[in-house]
Amino acid sequence: MMESRTETRVRYAETDAMGVAYHGSYIPWLEMARVQLLDDLGLPYRKMEERGFHLPVVDLRCEYRQSCRFDDRLEVLARITERPRARVTLAYEIHCGERLLARAWTVHAVVDDSGRPVRPPEFFLAALERVGL
Question: What range defines the domain where residue 82 resides?
Answer without folding.
Answer: 2-130
